[in-house]
Design a protein that fits this description.
Elements: E1 2-8, H1 12-23, E2 28-31, H2 39-43, E3 52-53, H3 73-83, E4 87-89, E5 94-97, H4 102-116, E6 119-121, E7 126-132, E8 135-140, E9 145-153, H5 166-171, E10 180-182, E11 186-187, H6 190-193, E12 200-209, E13 212-224, E14 227-229, H7 231-241, E15 248-252, H8 259-273, H9 286-295, H10 306-317, E16 319-322, E17 325-326, E18 334-336, E19 357-359, H11 373-393
Parallel strand pairs: 1-2, 1-9, 2-6, 9-19
Antiparallel strand pairs: 3-5, 4-5, 7-8, 8-9, 10-18, 11-14, 11-17, 12-13, 12-15, 13-14, 15-16
Helix pairs in contact: 1-4, 1-11, 8-10
Bound molecules: flavin-adenine dinucleotide.
Residues 8-14, 31-34, 40, 43-45, 49-50, 124-126, 154-156, 159-161, 163-165, 333-334, 361-362, 372-375, 378 line the site of flavin-adenine dinucleotide.
Length: 397
Amino acid sequence: MTSELLVLGGGAAGLLAAQTAAEKGLHVTLLEARERVGKKLLATGNGRCNLSNLHVSPDRYAPAALEGRLLTTEMLLSLFMQLGLETRADGESRLYPRSNQAASVLDVLRFSLERQGVRCVTEFEAVRAERTGGGFTLHARDGRTESGRALLLACGGRAASRQDGYALARQLGHSVTLLKPALTYLTTEPSLVRGLQGQRTIARVSLLQGGRELAAEEGELLFRDKALSGIAVFDLSRVRARTKGDCELRVDLLPDWDDERTAAELARRRALFSPAGVLLTGLFPRPIAERLLERTGLRLQDMPDDKQLRALATLLHDWRFPVMGSGGFDQAQLCVGGVPLNELRPGGLRSARCEGLYLAGELLDADGPCGGYNLHLAFSTGYLAACEAAEDLRPRQ
Ligand SMILES: Cc1cc2nc3c(=O)[nH]c(=O)nc-3n(C[C@H](O)[C@H](O)[C@H](O)COP(=O)(O)OP(=O)(O)OC[C@H]3O[C@@H](n4cnc5c(N)ncnc54)[C@H](O)[C@@H]3O)c2cc1C
């Protein structure tokens, strides 16, 4: 069966692309490997779908700024509003559906596909893409084929995914940069975090290389078995994925206190509470406090002297953890790397390597931090790629 536009991948980018292209009058077929579209979307934002952010701007993304390939937040929210989705921001500028349910985002997209008459074919895992005289033919693992005049690849990345589209992009003339898991935990020397699993605290965490700070984030720090996690570490894992060589994490447990205040507060606490065992009470969860004392060479019953107090003060602002590795793709929310943006026509989503091909979403070598930036990118590129396909297939007179 031949369509005007084949959209491969029923995730964030593909769903909005298919609805947009159909709204613009194209005959669209949406192909998805899984038994239903939008399964990953349902798992985003802990089931609440953090779909965008009030602070989206091209320079929040790597490896290069995304000018011309990103909708403003207002534009994306207005598109969703036209589909019936109301949204609201939380206290940290992250945008969620008003219902607080990812299912609402998927529902408005699905209903709109139905309204626009988009043909949806599920359990179609494309394994081969072919450029033919009249357009493109996709071959599924089970032998089925689908043809279209144009093809929009929106197969997502390798993170938390069983299928991908990198091989298909390669078959159509593109390259793929090194793929690495990101927005995940970072592993460290196990003895440094032993006994801390599940403990949380607020901290400023920096990623260092050779003593130089590459990036820093403030937020919740979560200790895991052999690893550090939490949103601050997730964001740093993205920077680390793009960095060659050894890195370490520096944890500042009292980012809002300067050295003077920390020294004064520790001295005050020593006068009040005496033994080391209660020195950090009320500041950190007990296992973290005990580990800090241990690292300073203090036992719970010790009376810390001035030197030990100074060492503790230093550790509170500069606790180091070598980075040994990270969570794998199955643990990651994002795949860093993909089809390089310089293989697209400048400022758009048209392939510069293959006429009639458009690329969108996480398949591209572009990524943003936690907080709604990656879904925003997927929706934006899906929408804009569909607009370009409609312009090319149905040029205005
Ligand atoms: C647990 C989790 C939580 C997340 N939470 C957030 C969040 O709250 N906010 C945020 O901004 N980002 C979040 N992300 C990241 C975000 O989900 C992705 O960046 C986004 O989904 C990418 O959209 P996409 O359409 O490019 O790819 P996907 O959403 O991955 O969709 C790709 C689709 O293509 C299909 N496909 C792949 N290969 C083939 C093939 N060969 N043939 C047919 N079909 C194929 C896949 O089955 C999939 O349905 C989260 C990620 C995870 C894993």
